[in-house]
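U., I forgot to send this yesterday:
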Amino acid sequence: YVDHPSFGMALIGRLLEAQGFRVGIISQPDWMSADDFKQLGKPNLFFGVTGGNMDSMVNRYTSDRRIRSNDAYTAGGEGGKRPDRCVVPYSQRCREAYKGVPIVIGGIEASLRRIAHFDYWSEKVRRSVIMDAKADLLVYGNGERQVVEIAHRLAQGEPVSELTDIRGTAFITKHGQREGWWEKDSTSVDIPGKVNPPIDPYAVQTEASCETQKAETEQDKKTSDTKTNIIRFHKVMPKDSSKSVIRLPAYQDVRSDSVLYAHTSRILHLETNPGNAMALVQQHGERDVWLNPPPIPLTTAEIDGVFDLPYSRVAHKQYGDNAIPAYEMIRFSVNIMRGCFGGCTFCSITEHEGRIIQSRSEDSIIKEVEAIRDTTPGFTGVISDLGGPTANMYRLACKSKEIEASCRRLSCVFPSICKNLGTDHTPLVNLYRRARALPGIKKILIASGLRYDLAVLSPEYVKELVTHHVGGYLKIAPEHTEDGPLDQMMKPGIGTYDKFKAMFDKYSKAAGKEQYLIPYFIAAHPGTTNTDMMNLAIWLKQNGFRADQVQAYLPSPMSAAAAMYHSGKSTLHKVRRKGGDITVPK
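Result:
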C-alpha cells in the first residue's frame, strides 16, 4: 500500500475519507482463507475489491505466457503475492468472511473485463468478471463519481440491488427487456453477417392494435368455422436515447464465434463517448450483464480536489526498507492529466480512462511539485516526470462541446488529426516554464509517452522540450515502420516520426546538447506480416539501432487489437463474415 495519488486504492480511500467515511484497506491479503479479510471487522457499507494498479495477469505473465521473475507493485519486487485474476478470489473470500455485505469491484482488472472478453492466457472467451466474482456492482473507468454515489446511497439505507442507474457501473439482472427501456440489437449498428433470423411480426401475439380490430375478430369467429390468425403488432417504445440500450450478442454465442466477438468488441468501443454512449446489455445464461454509459469526466476543479487530498506520498511503514519498485519509479513524478484520445488498438487507456482529457489546473500541479520538494524523502531536486497517459495532451480538447458530445470517432488523431481538435501546446509550455522556475527544482524531465504527431504541430513545444526537459535520451514509440501494422494499431506513419526526429536533432544542436531518441517497437501485432518485420529490421540497421529489448504483442483484455488477434478480423470497420481478414502472427 502506497499513500500516493498514482495508486488507485489510496486515491479512492482518501476521497471517501474526505466525504466523511472511515476507510480500511487490506493490502495483498492471503487469498487461501477468509482470515485476512476479517482483519478490520465487518464493513458497514461494502467491500471494495480491486486487483491494483496493474492487471494481475499482465503483471505476472510475459507475452510468451511465462511467469515474470518479479512484481513491481510488491515490496522487494517479490512475485507471487497476488493470485491470477485476483479480483475473483478476493471477492469470494470477502463473501466467505461476511455474507450479506455488498461487494463492489473496480480498478483496471475489473474495468477491462466488464463484458465477455478474450483471455489470452487461457485462449478462450471468458464471461464478465462480475459473474465470476459474484459481485453486486462493477465500477469501470476512473471511479470517483461512482464510488462516492454508491457510498452515500448505501449509507442512506438504499439496497445495493436498487443502485442500477449509476453511470460507469455494471450489474447483473434477470434476462429480458427491462420495463421502460427501448432495446436495440447490436447487429443494426454493425452487421457481422447472418446472426439470427429477423423477428416475424405475424408470429408474435401481443395486444390488439385497436378496438375496431377486436370487434372484427369477434365477427370473424362468428362467421367462420376456420380459426383465423390475426395480425398483431409489436408495441413500439419511444426511442429516448437516455432510456435506450444496445443488446450485444450473448456470451454463449461469442465464446464460440470469433466473428461475433469482434463485432461485440467494435460496438463496445463505439459506445465509449459519455456524450452519446448508450447502455449495453449482454446475456450470460439465464441472466444479463448490464453496462450503464461511461462516467462523466471530472472537471478541472474536481480533479484538483482529488489530487489535493492529504496523501502522505510514501509507502506504508510495515514494509520497512523493502522498496516497492513501482513507487520508486513515480515518487518524484506528477500526474497532470487523465485520458487519451489516441485510441491505439493495443492499449487499454482509452477503454479505462476515456478519450476526453481531464486536466488539472496549473496551480494544483505546482502545489504538488512543491509538496514533493518539501516533504518527499530523498528528493534531490529532479522531478522525474510531468505527464500522464501521454506527455503532451494537457488541455487539448475538441473545439466544440456539441461536436465532442456527438462524435463517434475511435481516435481524434487517426487516420489524420481531426480538424475540430485543438492542438495548442501553449498551456503545457507555460506549465513547464513555471515548474522549472520554482526554488529548489534543478530539472524537470518528461518521461511519459510523447505523441509526436501532435508535437510537430507546435515547434515551440518541441524546442522547449528538447532544450530543457530531456535527460540525454527521449523514449518515443513509433511502434513500427510499415503501414500495414501501423494502420491496425491506429498509429501515424513512420514519416511523422522522421519529421519529429529532424526537429529533435535541430533543437538539440541549437541547445548545444548531444541527445538521442530511443524508439520503441512492437513485434507480432495483428496485421503484421513477415515482410513487415523484415522491413523493420532493415530500417533499424539503416538508422544504426541495435535491438536491446523487443516487446512482443500481448493481447490485453477488451482491447480492440485483442479482438483482432482472436478473430483474424480488423475491427476498425464494420465486421463481416466475408472480408476484413488480417494476418495474425501467433
